[in-house]
Design brief:
The structure is a homodimer.
Chain A (H helix, E strand, L loop, with lengths): L1 E7 L3 H12 L4 E4 L25 H14 L3 E3 L4 E7 L2 E6 L2 E10 L3 E3 L15 E2 L2 H4 L7 E5 L3 H10 L5 E5 L9 H9 L3 E4 L2 E7 L6 E6 L5 E5 L2 E4 L3 E3 L27 E3 L11 H23 L1
Parallel strand pairs in A: 1-2, 1-6, 2-3, 6-17, 8-15, 9-10, 9-15, 10-11
Antiparallel strand pairs in A: 4-5, 5-6, 7-16, 12-13, 13-14
Helix pairs in contact in A: 1-2, 1-6, 4-5
Chain lengths: ~300, ~300
């Protein structure tokens, strides 16, 4: 059984690629490691995908899935991909359910935010714990938030959060930042930001929503607490691309051109797992559409 | 009155930029030449914006507009922009209602499809006449369609349409194509495509929907008709960018980097009016989000 396109990953990018490949009358199969939906299904409230003023991530994922199914997209859940063998005009997608042949592959496997490992962290996701200030910052107007991390993402997002929050604490395990100098200067100059150096978050606590974090100074071992409404965690984003033998940056994000072509002809990428200036549902659907149209043109090219 | 961001154009790209700038707590103003909505308001049925299985372009535009308004986006209709004066940290947007000052500008003015000028063309838009096969091709499964044009868009879309339509006529005013050689070869080899050379469409006719086109051979002046369900017109796309003094390609499409920055610092671009491999609602919303976040970071940078 030869597919035109195998799409790996069932988040917004993969499902949009599914809609576009099916509307282009291609034989397409979407593989998903767990269930369809991707990272957004753990998102409590989405306010910034145009057309939906307020929707839960799970409901939006369901709408995307139904939309793709309407056009007959075949999907398989609980299938793990371990590699893609490039046989020229055919790609062999190696999976936990055996090999699948396709003319083109679209990688839309997303990222996994690196967890702090603090007590309570997982319990409060969507109830004060967030991994995306662009997504969730607006919910913290006139509130107090803690940002954990010292890299560029942590610092630019801390600055961003000062536009909404009345107070932003940056908790960092070292005594200096890794972020670009200019970002550091802006953060130091910002009166709403306070730095808590040499410290790690040990626990995130509250009744129904986050109320405080307990931090430990790694030099003195002293613990203290900060009362806060939110905790934004920026300690790294892991692209789910280990299986893919295409060109990536030093962190593992796949490097595409503007047509979402990767370094291997016939393998395309879409969404959060690529090198990109922004990771949002709005950008993922754009990527998915482009990857699908590029895959369609590629298949036409090799078929003639 | 100084705005943080002036957004020029109220289609999906501009309205998404509006949602994102307002959620970033920026003072933003959206200017629109006619009414809000953009090119999609003339689209009868949209099936490929994820989350909405079937929606009219006008209804989708309304949802985008309401979404932006919910976050307090200020909009002005019936305002024509004639230029942007770059005064460094301030931009002066020259409009039919006077000058407007802003720290950053997002250009999201879209394109205008070049019209054939055939009788009936405008009457049948959305009822058989289309300017986008990726958008509307799926509605013509097992039908007959006419493609007008001889460039790369016309020919790649004619090939694309053979996947749905049972027959595709390509009507071209010359006796050879301008499209890339490889596209020509694929089109000539495709048994579903017939070429009608040296011919122009004089009239598109039907009762409620398109039923036929009347063509005239420009060498013999003889007229004839082709029975058809659809007419896809690919005689050029005009970017609405004449007012903008930023780097463009030879056709006037604005050249951005991946952050949607143009050649002028503080001026950003989003959507159809930029150089891009695909012009869809899905890609426009991605662009709008990126342009807004880039504008926000730029304003932070110049403000410190």
């Amino acid at each position: 059984m030869m597919y035109d396109v195998v799409i790996i990953g069932g988040g917004p990018a993969g499902l949009t690629a599914g809609i576009y490949t099916k509307r282009a009358m291609l034989k397409a199969l979407l593989l998903e490691k767990t269930g369809v939906g991707g990272q957004i299904i753990v998102t409590d409230l989405v306010e910034n995908f145009p057309g939906f003023q307020e929707i839960s991530g799970a409901d939006l994922a369901k709408k995307f899935e139904e939309h793709a199914q309407k056009f007959g997209l075949e999907t398989k859940s609980m299938v793990e991909v371990s590699g893609i063998e490039d046989k020229g005009k055919t790609k062999l997608v190696k999976t936990s359910e055996g090999d699948i042949e396709a003319k083109a592959v679209i990688i839309a496997t997303g990222t996994t935010p690196r967890k702090l490992g603090a007590r309570g962290e997982l319990d409060f996701i969507g109830r004060g714990v967030s991994y995306c200030a662009t997504c969730d910052g607006f919910f913290f107007r006139e509130k107090v938030v803690v940002v954990v991390g010292g890299g560029d993402s942590a610092i630019t997002e801390a600055i961003f959060l000062t536009k909404m929050a009345k107070k932003v604490y940056v908790v960092h395990r070292r005594d200096k930042l890794r972020a670009e100098k200019i970002n550091q200067e802006h953060a130091f100059a910002n009166p709403k930001i306070s730095f808590v150096w040499d410290s790690v978050v040990e626990e995130i606590a509250g009744k129904n929503v986050v109320e405080k974090v307990i931090i430990r100074n790694v030099k003195t071992n002293a613990t203290s607490e900060i009362k806060t409404d939110g905790v934004f965690i920026y300690v790294g984003l892991i692209p789910n691309t280990a299986f893919a033998n295409v060109k990536k940056d030093e962190w593992g994000f796949i490097i595409p051109n503007d047509k979402m072509e990767t370094s291997v002809r016939g393998i395309f990428v879409a969404g959060d797992c690529r090198v990109t200036p922004l990771r949002q549902i709005a950008t993922a659907v754009g990527d998915g559409a482009i990857a699908a149209v590029s895959a369609e043109r590629y298949i036409e090219e090799i078929s003639a």
